[in-house]
Amino acid sequence: MEITYQSIKPYVGGEKIEGSKIICEFIVDGQSFESLEYLKADSKDGKARITRMVKTTAIGRARSMVLQVLRRAVGGGFAGTAASMVGAEAMRQGTESVRYSSKEKEQAIVRAFKKIMHEFTYEGGKWRLATEFSEFEKLIKRNPFTKAYDKKILARMLVEMARADGTIEAAEKEFFNDFLTAETGLLKDLMRAPSISIVECEEVSKEAKENLFMIVAAVALTDNEFADEEQLKLEEYAQMFEFPDAKYEELLRYAQDYTIETYIKSKGAMSRDDIYAFADQIGMDRGEAERTQIRLEKRIG
What is the pLDDT of residue 89? Predict the structure, then answer.
């Protein structure tokens, strides 16, 4: 179905412009969801345009879906429910800017909604909360991070994983800048942080360890490959968390399942050959990858 600004306007709880970014809040069935998008504006000569090409690729869209899960897991974003929104009108103030036209802002809001529409289902002419989720999403929803220490270790692990191949690319820096806060530690500070130790892993909350590992694995897979360095780093984390081999394989499979799902949602459809090729890139069993595609089709219809 075609998504227009007028069709989603009733679900827009607020929007805030920060530089070239617009941060949108959407409220569906009383729950609040945040989504970030980049505004695009032409200069007077029509040549200069603010654009982030990574956001328009399948990889970029898949990474955006993972970012939404990450924000929910650490409690990031706007207030959790519509009832708890305080000063919503104040948040709307300052959204007017001479730099961007109303049309440009509306287009950005539509793009922001599309990034999170996998959270919803369209029934009876209205958007509703989706009720069917992957095992990865169920586990994240069941045990969100509540302790500041756990969030900081998560942030450090994500940065360590990104550095595993020797460099952090521009798209990865953009991802981290969208997620990291003063509470988790900013990228420039985490880049200088020492490697995580066994003792630090032992101090992570028991209920947070599995979700922390799954998220790190899922983020590592969002570039659609599973480098040897990344696999070694994940195995190192699993050992520090004292996961048995069976638990490591289970959590990694959940992350791989979710990665396949986000990529299918981003592309719209994938052939069996495409699924097999993708599975090979992320070190996933081909049969399990095909089974994940079938489960997704059964879930969303």
Answer: 36
230: Cβ contacts below 8 Å, ≥ 6 apart: 161, 164, 165, 220
Residue 212, Cα to own-chain centre: how many angstroms?
14
Question: Which range has the top average pLDDT, 44-48, 84-88, 102-106?
Answer: 102-106
Residue burial 272-287, b: 16+ Cβ < 10 Å; e: rest: eeebbebbeebebeee
Query: In which order are the strands placed within the sheet that holds 31-38?
Result: 12-18, 21-28, 31-38
Residue 71 scores a pLDDT above 90: no
Phi, psi for 77 (deg, rounded to 5): 95, -160
Contact assessment for residue 155 and residue 185, using Cβ atoms and an 8 Å cutoff: yes
Q: Are 13 and 25 in contact (CB under 8 A)?
A: yes
162: its two tokens: 């990104």
Size of the chain in residues:
301
| 155 burial via Cβ count (<10 Å: 0-12, 13-18, 19+) | buried
Q: Tell which residue, 218, 246, 266, has the closest CA to residue 56.
A: 266
> Percent of the chain having pLDDT more than 90?
33
Q: Which residue has the higher pLDDT, 252 or 67?
A: 252
The more confidently predicted of residues 70 and 37 is: 37
Place of tokens 């756990």: 150
- For residue 41, the number of C-alpha atoms closer than 13 Å in the C-beta half-sphere is 15
> Can you tell me the distance from the alpha carbon of 20 to that of 7, in angstroms, rounded to the nearest whole number?
24
Identify whether the C-beta of residue 58 lies closer than 8 Å to the C-beta of residue 267.
yes
Is the pLDDT higher at 289 or at 76?
A: 289
Interatomic CA distance for residues 255 and 236, integer angstroms? 17
Instruction: Answer yes or no: are the C-beta atoms of 254 and 214 closer than 8 Å.
Output: yes
